[in-house]
Amino acid sequence: MRLAYLLFALVASWLLSVPAMAEAPRRQDAARLMNELMSGQGPIGGPFSLKDQDGRRRVLADFQGRVVLLYFGYISCPDVCPTDLQLLAELMQRLGGDAAQVQPIFVTLDPARDTSDIVKAYLASFDERFVGLRGTPAETRRVATLYKTWYEVVRPKNSRTYFVDHTAYIYLLDQQGRYVAFFPPGTSSARMEVMVREVLAASHRPTLQRTSP
Fold first, then answer.
1. Per-residue confidence at 101, pLDDT binned at 50, 70, 90?
2. pLDDT, tens only, 124-158
3. What gap in Å lies between CA 49 and CA 57, rounded to an integer?
4. Residue 120 burial (CB < 10 Å; 0-12/13-18/19+)?
5. pLDDT for the residue 20
6. How many helices (H) and strands (E) does the chain have?
7. Cut 0.70: pTM above it
8. Pairwise CA distance, residues 108 & 133, whole Å
9. Which of 47, 66, 137, 207 could cross-link with 103 by S-S, CB 3.0 to 4.6 Å?
10. Cα 165 from Cα 109, distance rounded (Å)
């Protein structure tokens, strides 16, 4: 219960921080997706097909057998994205040899600016084991919505550039690609390690078979 209240506070503070230029439908859409994520209403996650930083088409099934840590963000993000990616890099270090059973994946919400080469160089600065994915605007929207991630391009007046408002969660998927849980922004690598190791351990537990009397 305490965790639920904490998550609610995080969501509320994030909604209040959305710029005043944001219209009511945007806020409502963000609140709906976050409510579905936190309450577990409806399915969360699912298969996807996007291109990686080397231009290869990748699907979720490619990572079967590994625990997946899925993160949505964009390269020009000033603070939250690099902080969370650094925490993921720390997690991989903490896992030691078990890191081979874990796959961090970054999906860009800004494919117009985040080319494959840019994504590749950016992720390599954190950990070369990261996989970066990008798609068309329609593909990106579909995958983000599957995982209850809200984002919106915001163009300030009289500005030549733009930024991307977005929710920032790390999604934990098991070895079969099934959604397990999410980590709020800024979750420590130590906390993530505990849950990742729990998922890894669960895969090694023997399945009890029912025997006939």
1. very high
2. 999 999 999 999 999 999 999 999 999 999 988 88
3. 7
4. middle
5. 42
6. 6, 9
7. yes
8. 6
9. 66
10. 10
Which has the closest alpha carbon to 7: 172, 194, 187? Answer: 187
Give the number of other Cβ atoms within 10 Å of residue 150's Cβ: 21
SS3 154: strand
Beta-strand ranges (E) seen in 40-178 are: 49-52, 57-59, 67-73, 102-108, 131-134, 151-154, 163-166, 170-173
Is residue 213 very low, low, confident or very high in pLDDT (cuts 50, 70, 90)?
very low
Residue 84 token pair: 């969370």
Question: Long-range contacts: 150-159, Cβ < 8 Å, 24+?
Answer: 150/29, 150/30, 150/33, 150/34, 151/72, 151/109, 152/22, 152/26, 153/110, 154/19, 154/21, 154/22, 156/21
